[in-house]
Amino acid sequence: MLRLEQLDKTYATGERALKDVTLEIPQGQVVALIGPSGAGKSTMIRCVNRLIDPTGGKAFLNDIELTRLSQNGLRRARRQMGMIFQEYALVERLTVMENVLSGRLGYVGFWRSFTRRFPQTDVDEAYRLLDRVGLLHMADKRADELSGGQRQRVGIARALVQDPALLLVDEPTASLDPKTSRQIMRLIVELCKERNLAAIINIHDVALAQMFVERVIGLELGAVVFDGTPDELSPDVLTRIYGEEDWEATIEKVEEEDEDVSGEAAQ
Predict the structure, then answer these.
(1) Which residue has the higher pLDDT, 234 or 259?
(2) Exposed (0-12), middle (13-18) or buried (19+): which is 30, by Cβ within 10 Å?
């Protein structure tokens, strides 16, 4: 379980990017984090894994208080937080398998990581995950030979090979076409259900969030202004988060696309 208590972040410029964010995400729940650019979505994810330090409040992963950890303690805690990035963050010259196994670097010693000699159990799990994400046949291909959707699948497998307790997902579909975006969102949600894994997905696409997750958190100027189910994202709520727009048309589009997704899943 992830628990945030009055998490706050103010940058040196004086910009207050997070304002007393308090929430809980139980084990197994997938949450979409929505809001306009500058709302604090990426800042929240980066405060959780301590890529940046909050200026106030607390963050807990199960019984570990992340906001008080030393650097050594933080390295151990990060093993439990898998990251999936918008720009994939793969090493282009390495193979798909080598990129996936890089998710185990926090568990092996320096020389094993330097020579990329991983335990057979890690290799077996990497193969299993590549099979699950549909890329087993590409294990020996270089990362720079892959399409965007394939690269994101490698990123998903790399995050899961860590055996994390929490997935932090930063704009996983921003660089993908609509069909591939649906496939990637569906895959992430299915894998979280299979593993009873909690996840925060920072996403701009409200329609995708409504189609695939069970809970949506809306941020506006660093504060939580909505926390509920996708069905509760009314035009008034969306206007509060994003500003004026024809949200009725957006909701109708979501309903139509949701029917299309149901049809795809049934095939």
Answers:
(1) 234
(2) buried
> Which residues on neighbouring strands pair with residue 25, listed in sequence order?
2
Query: Where does the chain show beta strands of DSSP type E?
Result: 2-10, 16-25, 30-34, 56-61, 64-65, 81-84, 166-170, 198-202, 215-220, 223-228
What pLDDT, in 10s, does the model give residues 54-91? 999 999 999 999 999 998 898 889 989 999 987 778 88
Q: Count of alpha carbons within 13 Å of 140, Cβ hemisphere only?
A: 1
* The pair of three-digit structure tokens given for residue 71, joined into one six-digit string: 């650097």
Would you mind telling me the total number of residues written for the chain in this entry? 267
pLDDT digits (tens, 9 = 90+) for 130-163: 999 999 999 999 999 999 999 999 999 999 999 9
DSSP SS3 for 214: coil
Instruction: Give how far the C-alpha of residue 25 lies from the chain's centroid of Cα atoms, to the nearest Å.
Output: 13
For the sheet with 2-10, list strands across it.
16-25, 2-10, 56-61, 64-65
């330090």: which residue's tokens?
53
Other beta carbons within 10 Å of 70: 8
Q: For the CA atoms of the chain, what is the radius of gyration?
A: 19
